[in-house]
Structures are given as C-alpha cells and as structure tokens.
Specification:
The complex is a heterodimer of chains A (587) and B (768). Chain A is of the alpha+beta class and 587 residues long. Chain A is 15% helix and 43% strand. Chain A contains seven helices and 26 strands. In chain A, helix 2 (54-61) runs antiparallel to helix 3. The longest helix of chain A has 28 residues, at 2-29. With 768 residues, chain B is mainly beta. In chain B, 15% of the residues lie in helices and 52% in strands. In chain B, helix 6 crosses helix 7 (666-680). The chains are: A alpha+beta (587), B mainly beta (768). At the A-B interface, helix 2, helix 3, strand 3, helix 4 and strand 6 of A face strand 28, helix 7, helix 9, strand 43 and strand 44 of B.
Chain lengths: 587, 768
C-alpha cells in the first residue's frame, strides 16, 4: 500500500516537473498571434503587460469599415512599431519566416538618467528615483513632468513650464525647466463666496499672507475646507494661462452645497469592534462659518452622544473660536466601565505659518462621572480646566493618510483645584509627539523612519477618587504594542507617571502591491507613586504590515511584550505576544 | 663645297665625340649611376624633396662588352619626403640585366622590397577624368602595365609592404602587399568609403593572372560581402565572377533591399573597341519579384570619339512572385554612333514595341516613347523630346531642348496589387480604391544654372460606399546644376476636389492608439535626419474646391464630418487651416452633441501649435449649453454659456449629471468643482471635453498642483473605465475614496481625544 502511494507520488512529481519544463521551453519560443500574418515573440512572456488593444488591432489587422479591410504589411508594421514605442519598445525587429511576420520585441528601453536643467534652489530636496530603470514610455515621462511641476509649485513658482526631450538611444531624459517668477501670496480673490465671510474662509489657510507660494499648502487649505464640510469644493487658481495675469495674486474657487448633513459611518478595529457613528452637522451656522455637530457613537468600548459647536464670533480674529460642548460617554473597557457627562465652554485659536499649524484651546469643564465597574468613585462631579496645545507640521498633515514625513507635538493639561468645584487637587499632564522621516527624501519613499513618545504625569494625593478616564494607563496599539489595551495599570489604579518611546522602520518599496512591512520597538518606564520610576523596563519588539489599499490603510502588528527587571513588582500583564489589526490608524 | 665639307667634318667629329662619350659612359656607368649624382639631379629637378640617396649601394657589373648587370640595394633605410609623400623603405634590392643589342628589353632578375608605413599622395591636381578618358587612358595604361609584368617576369621577386597609406583629399586607403614570384596578396582598407578588400593575385596557366578575394563594404547602412574572381589574360580580356550578398539579411535595409546579386562577365579591352559581355546575371530582390535573370548581354564600347557602341541583351527574365509567371524583356539596342546617333530599342514583355530615337546627327537626339501595356493596358506612356550633347573640353554637356511626357495609369488597383508586398505599398484606406492616375510633363526648360520641369497630374479614384479621391496637382521642379549656389526646388499646388473616406471604428474611450511617435522622443534616425539638411526648397499648397470637398465618415459622426481645407507648406514653415461648414452631430453612449463649428488653424511663427475655434452645442434638462473652444488645440480655453443663462458650475453640472448643482450631493459637487478647475487650468484637452459631455461620469479627481486629472466612467454593462492624466499625487494624499454613487471610504483624523488617531469608515452623507 505504501509502495503504491509512493509510486503515485513519484509519478506526480515527475509529471509536474516535465510539465513545468515543457511550459518553460515552449514559453521561451512561443509565438503569439496578433492577427493575419503578424506574430509576436516575447523575451519575458509572463511579465509582459497586456498585448495590443482592440483599437490598435483594428489598425493592424483591419476591419469591415470601407477602406480598412486590408491593411498593407508596411502600414501595419509602421503602426505596430508606433504602438510598441508607446510601450517602451524601441529595439523591435521584424523578421519573416515563411508566411509569418514575427515581431521580436527585444528589451524595453529604460529610463537610465534624468537630467534636470535650470533647477532653482531647493528643487532636489525631494528625490525622484522611483522612475529610474522604469520603461521609457510617454506615461512615465508624464510622471516625471508632473513631479517636476509639483516640485516647482512647492518652491514658490506658481506658473512653471518645462520642455522634455527623450533620447531613446542613450535612454536619457532631459527636462529643461522654466520656473518663471518666484511669487509670494499677497492677494487671494474669493470666487463664489457670498455665503461666508472672508475670515470664515481664511482661517483654513495653511499659509500666512506674504509667504512664498506653495502649491502643497494651497492643496492642504482646500482639503481642510472640504473636510470641515463648510464647502463641497475648494481649489486655488494661479491663472497662468491668462495673458494679463497679476503676479502674487491668486483666485480661490469655492463651491457650496447644502449646509446640513447627516452622515453615517461604519468601521472597526481589533480594539473597538464594530464602530457605528451617526453625525448630524450644520456647517454654516453663521456667515463666519461656525458649525455645530451632534455625534452618536457606538462601539464595543465606547458609546457616546456628543454635541459640539465651533463658534467663530470674532470678526477681526477669525481664527479664535468658542467651543461649547456637551457629551455623554459610556466606556466599557475590560478594566472599568464608566458613564461620563461633560459640559464645557472652550476658547481656542488656530495659527499657521508656511510650515506648521499651531493650535491652543482652554476649556472650563463640568464633569459628572459614575464608575459602574472597577475602581473609582461611584458618583462624582467636579469642575476641571482642560488645556491643550498642539504643533503640527504641514507635511505631517498633508501626508496624514500616507504618513511619510513631518512632526506632531501636543501637550494636554487637565487641572482640578480643591475648592473650585472639586474635592481634590489633581493635575494630569500628557506630552506626546511623533516624528516621521522619509529616509533619503525620495518622492516615492523607500524607507520611513518613525519615532513617537509620550510622557504622562498624574499628580494627585487622592488616586481613589480619581475617575477612570483621568487615570494614566499603558498598553495597546497606541503605545506598547506587545501588551493588551490599558493592561499596564497598577492594579487598575493607574500610573503616576510614564515615559514611553516607540520607533518603527517601514519599508515602502520592498514588496509589491503597496504592502509595507515594518519593524517596531517600543520601550517604556513607569512610576506608580510620584515620579519614582520603577526599575522595570517594558519593551515591545515586533513587526507589522501596512497595506495602502485603494480605499484606505490597513495595519497589523505582532509584538512581544517583554518586562525586564520586574521581580519585586506586579505590573499586571505577563510577557506575551500581541496582535493588532486597525483600519485607518497610523503610527 | 668647302662649307659642306666643314659641316660634314663637324658632324663626324661630333658623332665620334658622342660615340666616344657614350662608350666612356657605357664602360663607366658607375660615374653617373651613383648616389651623389642622383642626389644632385634630384636637387636640380625636385629641390624640395629630401631623399637619402647615400643609403643606396649601387653595383654595376659587365658580364661582357655589350651587357650590364646592375644591382641597387639599400645599406640602411632609404627615406624620402616630398610634399605629402614620405616614408622609409627598410630593404630594397633591384637587379636588372640588359644587353645593348636587345634594348629596350630589360630583364629583371630580382626585386626585393620591404617597407612599412609609407604615405603617398594620390590626388590628381587636374580635373577628374571623363568616362571616355577612363577607357582611353587608364584602362589602356593598366593593360600595358600588366603586359610588361607578364613579359618581364623577374627570376626572384619578394615584396612585402605593410600599412602603405594612399591618400587624396577625401580618402585614405591603407594597403598591404605581399608578393612573391607567383602570387600577390594584397589588402586594402578605407574607413571613409567603408571598404575592405582582401585578395590574392596569382599567375595562372598560360600567363594568365587570376585575381580573387573578398570585398567587405558598408553602403547605405548595409553591410555587403562581395567575393570576386577576375581572370586577366595578356590579350586584354578580363573575366569577372562576382557575387554580392548583404550580410545583415534579417535587419532589412530600406535602401538596398535585396537578397543577392550574382554576375559573371568579361571585359575585353582593345585599342579600337572594347567588349563587355555579361554572360550571366541573377538579381534576387527581397520584395516584389523573386528574381531578375539575364544572360549573354553584349556591349561594344568604342575607344575613340568616332567609334560606335552596341548593346544587345536577350532573354532577360523577371520572375514574379505574385503572379507566379515569367515575364521576358527582349532588348536590342542596335547602334550608337559617335556616342549617340541612332537608337532603336525593341521591347517586349510588359510593353509594346514603340520606342525609337532618330535624327541623332549633330549631337541632337529626338525621341519618342509610346508604351502601352501589352496585356491589360494598365499603363500608357508617351514621351517626346530632343536632347543636345556638346563636348566642352573634356566634359560632355547634356542639354534638353524639348521634353514632353504623358503617363496614364488605367488601373490604380493593379498598381496597388503590384506594390502590395513591397515597401512602397499604397496605405489604407487608399488601397481599396480604383480608378485612373494621369501624369503629364508639359515642358522642360534648360539653362546653365538649372533644369525646370513643369508637370500636372489628375487622380480620380473611387471605392465602395461612396469612397472618393479626386485630386488635381500642378508642379514645377527646378533641378539645380550646382546645389551649393542654388538648391533644387519643388513647387506643388494641389486642388482637392473630393476626398470621401472612412475612419476605422476606434472607440475613443478605450484609448486612442498612438499613430505617431511622441514629439518628446528623439530617435536615432530622427537625430541623423536632423543633422542632414536637404539641399531642396519646396512649396506645397493644397486647397479644397468647395465647402464639403472632404467628407469623413465615422461611426459616431452623423451624417459625416465635412471640411474645407487649405495648406501651405515649405521648408521653413507650414500653415494650414481646416474648417467645418455644416453642423455635425456626435452620437456616443446615447448622448448627442452638435458640433456647430470646428476650425483649425496653424499658429503663425510656431512649429506645431494649432489654434482651435470651435463650438459644441449640448442640450440637457431644457437648457441649451454652448461650449466654445478657443486657442491651443491640445489645451483649449473653454467658455461655457447656456440658454437660459446659468452659472458656470451649473453648466458643468448639467454636462456631467444633467442636473444643476442644487440637485447634487457633496461628492458630485466635488466632481463638478474638480472638472471646473481642470477646465480653467486647461488640463483637460479636447478629447476630455468630449468625454465629459458624452459619457456618464462617476467621479473626477483633479490635482491643481500637478495639473493632472482622472475621471471614472461607467459604461453600459457595469464596465468602469478610468481616463485622464496621471493623478498619482492626488491618490497619495487623498483621504476619501468613492466606491459608489452614495458610499465612500473615509479616513477620519481627530485630535484631542484619547485613542482617536485615525479611523477608516464606510461613509454615507445625506445633505439638505
């Protein structure tokens, strides 16, 4: 019986091997018929893209249209060569064997060198190498031209032009740049903005007036406007094609839709699954573009109702705003379950220079919090002052859906003062930052190096009466990725301080299909009393995969939670492997 | 008498003195033939020359009273330098023997020559020889050298010459000789002419020399290998056996496109008349004919001015691949007296026998050709004229006094069939037409500067389904005698009466094929073409005779596109204009557009830019929209207007969605905004406009920074296509992807809230 199986197995292996060698042999010499006498012989059969299109075949092979039934061979040859040139084949040869005309494709010509001429200062701060060794096709030349124009527009030249010449013999592309005048943003003319005041629009500007023109900042401004829901469409026009163009003057085109929206969202992660969110929005409460939201959020971890108004009342300071906010939130964490109600009236301001956005806000808040499960006060109410400062670079914001460069820094401060509507004194500080670096500065990044940190301090003499949402925890996809969510919690009472540093090296061009593997390493130190840090070090080495899918990013991580030097302390979790899957979440 | 005696005595004394002097010299030849005397003689006649005579050792022996044996050999290198000739002979030895009674016959006993790197100037100070000079002088000279060599074979012969450079103003030949008593091997290389000859020369039987070898040469970018064998007899008969085979047969040359040429002929050079006898030739082209085969063609050349030349070639056969039959041309050229006097040419095969020349006296030739196709009268051909030949010094001038030419191709289809498999095949859709083509050369004027030829032609072709091509042309061709002073010139005026043709059923949405190479791409051929400037001026004008002379039929044109066209093209600039005079309905994917105006005009002072002036009318939801296109054809300026009047974005909304913006959802509004921005930046070309107006658009993305757009189009049968320019950048930074009319994937980013860095949601927005 065994012999029989073994014989069958051997036969199968032999059959498979012979089939494989047969196909390999035939593929090397396989002639693919195009039509009529025309055959094509390819060097790399499996890797060649689609053959001739239906439209192209009409011109090579003829059709029933009067006059186009018989295409002479020399005309068909001419068309064939043109079509192949369009695909980067410039070394094709035609040979005749009996009644067959065989097209030997030869190797594709590649883009070996790109010579940029008349480049302005700073032009090469981003490198465009991803096109090198790609086929010498009109499409790829357009990519080079598009990148070149983009670079010039990002360096102060709103109306650049260029002339490209391709030397197919030497496989060289020469791009002659005509940057035009470098201009500053001095005047922006709003088109179709009768519904909203000028300030209501300018508060979204990602650039200050007087700064050099930067196309990326203009795009970012448009995106902010559309994302806010204030407008359906926004775009800036440089009017380069107009004869009497005014320098330093730009047009801002806006298109307004209905002011009210009802939005349904569905999503999920391995930490919060599933997520459903319904939002009612009014995007134009007044002519300054104030808006009001009412969110209903539901997930396995959080269920909330949140009403928020961004109220821009200062006519001369459109970037100042009030934020009246009412929220009712129930958290259903493994560690605790709470019901929290907050009423606040905040004041905030956004500022932009040509590289960064600065934002601050301060909100006196009345909190009512019930602890349903876990440690914490059963029912408490208190006043707090919630303050927040952020610095976000425009690069970070622009590439937020495909992170590759820029930085983000934020500082949160929550303060409760005994006697000011609170029974205890408590301060919670949370300093967070992320830094992303596109290694080598390539247009299509090869490697992205990411670094993030969190430093938190909770300073209070009464940890028992501190509501769960005020406490400091570690663990989960947001920090220590080798540990479960909020699992570093000092027996559910929270930490007095922690210092966390996470790093990630992501390889964007290593494997195809936009799959981006990465390696990660997180490290943290914790303190359970005051700022006395424990000798134990928490680490999470691991790896992950990010997929830039056509509809958004998917990320997975697998990391091992390690605790070094922890014999005398019970930190909660044990050493373990942890897997996370998230949608849209980035490092 | 005394005087006579005195003169006689003086003569006897002079003769005696001369005889004594002669005897003295004869017995003491070494007095004269010695390096010092040779040096002085050279200084007198060639003062600029530098020759190392002192390196020669001359030994003169007298075997008897009447004989001399002279040996000249080098002791050291014998060097010379005169004008562009210079070099050193490493070893030289010449031993000759002669006797007084047999003079001028000289016996060469030994020749020994060994030299390297000698440079010799072979340029001739005078004008090039005429063909007559060539036959009269050079071939005769060559013949006499051969004769001397055959009659005076040295007893010992050893010549070894390496790297001998023969140069004139243009060319530089490098020769290598290796000669011994019975054979001579030599090779010639010339880089300018791309020629490389490697051959041997040996004495065959009965004093016949046989010269054989290989010639490798590069002509018109084609590499040829020519094995040859030439037999030279003392009687002056040269037998040639030559085969020409292009080496690179796979990569076909456009200019020299043949498989092989094999010939065997003999040339007999005599004083009065030379005879060229082509015993056999076989020419095998690549296309069209299989072979042209002939044998026993005889040409008698006169070797003097008053002689006659005869040509006789029978049994020439053309093997035709297409018709699988043999055509035979029998030609008899009877007599050419005083170069050209009377010519009678008998032709059979393709043509009837109606060709004759007469009145060839006084160097004037009158002629008439009247050729009719023998079988189906495909081609009729009549030509009349007279030429004048004048001999001016050594040149033969050719003057055309009168020339008329009428050719009529009765069946264009036959021509199409004949050329079908060749490089000159008539392209589609013209190859489906049949009819007549007439060509008339009306007049030829000749002067010392140029020859002017006036011609006109008429093409009248038609095909199935109302295809027509009716074109008339008048042309004038000036052939310059000296292109350095004045280039050739070609003037052509064409009147386009009717051009009614069909376009293939290309579906534009599925990608327009690239019929010409992208202008940004510079191929090797184009670079070479650019570097070569043609010495020809031309002016080509063409114009339609009426407003619908040109009718283009196409699947989506209802009923057809009619055009009025005019163009002027010359070497420096080309101008053209094309305009429609009748509205054209475009029907595509159940949408209809009316092209009311579509005029194209080449911009002045521009190489390629074409100006467009067009108007398209589109009706949707009770609105009549006018799309005016002005400016650059590739990226026109688009003006939109409507009746009743609407804002621009509403017009775009109507074009894309057949609804105004008030009825759109936010993502549709974004598509309208993107389209409007793209139109304003002129990122959308003519094709894009048509596409947007004629197809159901699902989404439009536009990145104003890189000025690239992309549109997703829904075609019937759930087929979705993306068209537009590259929009990689937009894709990269975008945070919203539409997946259907109402649903999108959105990545939301919120700050200031714990655990809310980013989330991916499937989203639907209701706006009101």
């Amino acid at each position: 019986m065994i012999n029989k199986h073994l014989t069958l197995l051997l036969l199968n292996i032999l059959l498979l091997t012979s089939c494989q060698s047969y196909f390999r042999r035939t593929d090397e010499h396989k002639l693919e018929k195009i039509c009529g006498h025309f055959y094509v012989q390819r060097k790399h059969h499996f890797y060649f893209e689609n053959t001739f299109t239906q439209n192209e075949k009409l011109l090579i092979c003829g059709s029933d249209v009067p006059g186009w039934k018989d295409i002479p061979e020399n005309q068909a040859e001419y068309f064939l060569k043109s079509f192949l040139n369009d695909r980067g084949f410039f070394k094709t040869q035609l040979i005749r064997e009996n009644d067959k005309i065989i097209i030997l494709m030869g190797e594709k010509n590649k883009i070996r060198t790109i010579d940029f001429k008349n480049t302005p200062e700073g032009f090469f701060d981003s490198k465009f190498i991803s096109i090198i060794n790609e086929p010498l096709t009109p499409d790829n030349i357009e990519k080079i031209e598009s990148w070149t124009l983009n670079q010039l527009r990002n360096h102060g030249y709103p109306c650049p032009s260029l002339k490209t010449q391709v030397d197919t013999k030497n496989e060289q592309v020469t791009v002659q740049l005509f940057p035009g005048e470098k201009e500053r943003v001095e005047n922006i003319e709003l088109i179709h903005s009768t519904q909203i005041s000028e300030g209501g629009i300018s508060r979204f500007h990602a650039f200050p007036f007087g700064s050099f023109y930067n196309g990326q900042n203009f795009s970012l401004t448009s995106r902010r406007l559309m994302q806010s829901g204030l407008v359906d469409y926004s775009d800036f026009h440089n009017n380069c094609k107009i004869k009497d163009r005014r320098p330093n003057h730009f047009e801002h085109k806006l298109s307004f839709g209905y002011p009210r929206q009802f939005i349904l969202n569905f999503g999920g992660t391995t930490e919060e699954y599933p997520i459903a969110k319904a939002t009612w929005k009014h995007n134009r409460l007044d002519q300054h573009g104030s808006n009001g939201n009412l969110d209903l959020y539901f997930s396995s971890v959080k269920q909330s109702l949140n009403g928020l108004i961004h109220w821009h009342t200062f006519k001369n300071n459109p970037r100042f705003y009030w934020t009246p906010n009412l929220s009712i939130t129930r958290y259903s964490e493994l560690l605790y379950e709470t019901l929290s109600q907050k009423l606040s009236l905040g004041l905030g301001q956004d500022l932009d220079d040509s590289k960064n956005q600065y934002r601050w806000s301060i909100s006196p808040t009345y909190n009512i919090e019930k602890t349903l499960v876990g440690s914490g006060p059963d029912n408490t109410s208190f006043f707090s002052l919630e303050s927040r400062m952020t610095l976000t670079s425009h690069d970070y914001e622009y590439f937020i859906s495909n992170p590759q460069k820029g930085s983000h820094l934020s500082l949160d401060w929550s303060n409760r003062q005994k006697g000011l509507g609170s029974e205890i004194n408590a301060n919670r500080y949370l300093l967070e930052g992320t830094y992303l670096n596109n290694w080598g500065g390539f247009k299509k990044p090869l490697i992205v190096f990411g670094l993030r940190f969190k430093y938190g301090v909770y300073d209070s003499n009464d940890r028992v009466d501190t509501p769960a949402s005020y406490r400091l925890y570690l663990g989960g996809d947001d920090d220590l990725r080798g540990f479960p969510r909020k699992s570093i919690n000092n027996n559910s009472t929270g930490l007095s301080s922690f210092a966390y540093l996470g790093s990630e090296i992501r390889f964007l061009s290593l494997i195809p299909y936009d799959l981006q593997p990465f390696i990660l390493f997180d490290i943290a130190k914790i303190a359970v009393n005051n700022l006395n840090y424990l000798p134990a070090t928490l680490m999470s080495p691991g790896a992950g995969m990010r997929w830039q899918s056509p509809f958004g990013s998917l990320r997975t991580t697998l990391a091992y939670g390690m605790i070094d030097n922890h014999r005398n302390y019970h930190l909660g979790p044990t050493e373990q492997w942890k897997f996370f899957l998230s949608f849209g979440k980035e490092f | 008498m005394k005087l006579l005696n005195k003169i006689l005595l003086s003569l006897i004394a002079l003769l005696t003195t001369l005889l004594l002097l002669g005897l003295l010299i004869w017995f003491n030849l070494d007095w004269i033939i010695q390096p010092r005397i040779l040096h002085k003689t050279q200084n007198y006649f060639l003062p600029k020359a530098e020759i190392t005579w002192e390196s020669l050792l001359i030994n003169i022996k007298s075997p008897d009273w009447i004989s001399k044996d002279i040996q000249i050999k080098t002791q050291s290198s014998f060097c010379f330098n005169y004008l562009s000739n210079n070099g050193c002979i490493d070893q030289f030895e010449l031993n000759i023997y002669f006797t007084l009674l047999k003079l001028p016959s000289i016996k060469i006993k030994k020749i020994l020559l060994k030299a390297e790197n000698i440079s010799l100037d072979i340029s001739r100070p005078h004008a090039k020889p005429t063909p007559v000079d060539f036959f009269q002088t050079y071939l005769k000279d060559f013949q006499s050298y051969i004769q001397i060599l055959l009659n005076n074979k040295p007893e010992s012969l050893a010549i070894n010459l390496k790297e001998i450079q023969l140069h004139d103003n243009k060319n530089n030949f490098v020769l290598n000789f290796l000669i011994d008593k019975d054979n001579l091997n030599f090779s010639v290389q010339d880089d300018n002419l791309n020629i490389d000859i490697d051959s041997s020369f040996l004495l065959a039987q009965k004093n016949n020399f046989e010269w054989s070898g290989n010639i490798n040469t590069l002509v018109a970018a084609s590499e040829f290998k020519v094995p040859f064998k030439i037999n030279i007899s003392p009687s002056g008969t040269y037998n040639f056996d030559i085969k020409i085979v292009p080496k690179n047969t796979k990569a076909r040359s456009k200019t020299l496109n043949f498989k092989s040429f094999v010939t065997n002929f003999s040339l007999n050079i005599r004083n009065e008349q030379s005879i060229l006898l082509i015993k056999k030739f076989n020419f095998r082209p690549n296309n069209g004919f299989e072979a042209i085969v002939g044998n026993n063609c005889k040409i008698h050349f006169s070797m003097n001015d008053n002689g006659s030349t005869q040509f006789n070639c029978k049994n020439t056969q053309i093997k035709n691949i297409q018709h699988k039959e043999l055509e035979t041309i029998n030609q008899n050229l009877v007599m050419v007296s005083q170069l050209f006097k009377t010519i009678h040419l008998k032709l059979s095969g393709y043509f009837n026998e109606k060709v004759y020349f007469n009145n060839l006296d006084n160097n004037i030739a009158q002629f008439k050709f009247d050729l009719n196709s023998q079988k189906k009268k495909v081609l009729n051909f009549i030509s009349l004229g007279d030429f004048e030949f004048k001999k001016n010094n050594n040149y033969l001038n050719f003057i055309i006094n009168k020339f008329e030419f009428n050719a009529e191709l009765n069946s264009f289809k036959k021509l199409v069939q004949s050329l079908a498999k060749t490089d000159w095949a008539i392209p589609a859709p013209l190859n489906s037409l049949d009819g007549t083509v007439k060509l008339t050369v009306e007049n030829v004027e000749y002067n010392t500067k140029e020859t002017v030829l006036s011609a006109n032609s008429k093409i009248n072709l038609s095909g199935k389904d109302n295809q027509k091509l009716v074109v008339g042309a008048n042309s004038k061709i000036n052939i310059s005698n000296n292109t350095k002073n004045a280039p050739h010139r070609f003037d052509l005026t064409m009147t386009l009466d009717k051009i009614h043709l069909y376009l293939p059923e290309i579906d534009p949405i599925r990608g327009l094929p690239s019929l010409t190479q992208d202008s940004r791409f510079k191929s090797e051929k184009a670079t070479k073409k650019q570097s070569k400037s043609l010495a020809i001026d031309y002016q080509i004008n063409f114009k339609t005779t009426n407003s619908d002379s040109i009718k283009i039929f196409y699947k989506y044109f209802i009923p057809y596109l009619s055009l009025e066209l005019s163009a002027q093209i010359n070497k420096n600039i080309s101008n053209f204009s094309a305009k429609t005079n009748a509205p054209l309905k475009l029907s595509y994917l159940k949408r209809e557009l009316l092209v009311k105006k579509f005029n194209l005009k080449k911009k002045k002072n521009s190489d390629n830019d074409i100006d467009l002036d067009g108007q398209i009318i589109y009706e949707a939801s009770g609105y009549k929209i006018s799309i005016d296109l002005i400016g650059d054809l590739e990226k026109p300026h688009i003006t939109l207007s409507s009746n009743p009047p609407l804002p621009r974005e509403d017009i775009i909304s109507l074009i894309i969605y057949k609804r105004t913006t008030a009825e759109l959802n936010p993502s549709e509004n974004q598509n309208v905004g993107n389209t409007e921005s793209a139109i304003k930046d002129r990122a959308i070309g003519l094709f894009g406009i048509w596409l947007f107006a004629s197809t159901p658009i699902e989404s439009v993305y536009y990145d104003s920074n890189s000025q690239t757009y992309s549109a997703q189009i829904a075609l019937p049968g759930e087929v979705k296509l993306s068209v537009g320019t590259n929009w990689e950048n937009s894709q990269m930074v975008g945070i919203k992807r539409r997946i259907s009319e109402n649903w999108s994937f959105v990545t939301t980013y919120q700050t200031g809230e714990e655990n809310s860095v980013g989330n991916l949601f499937l989203q639907r927005i209701f706006s009101y």
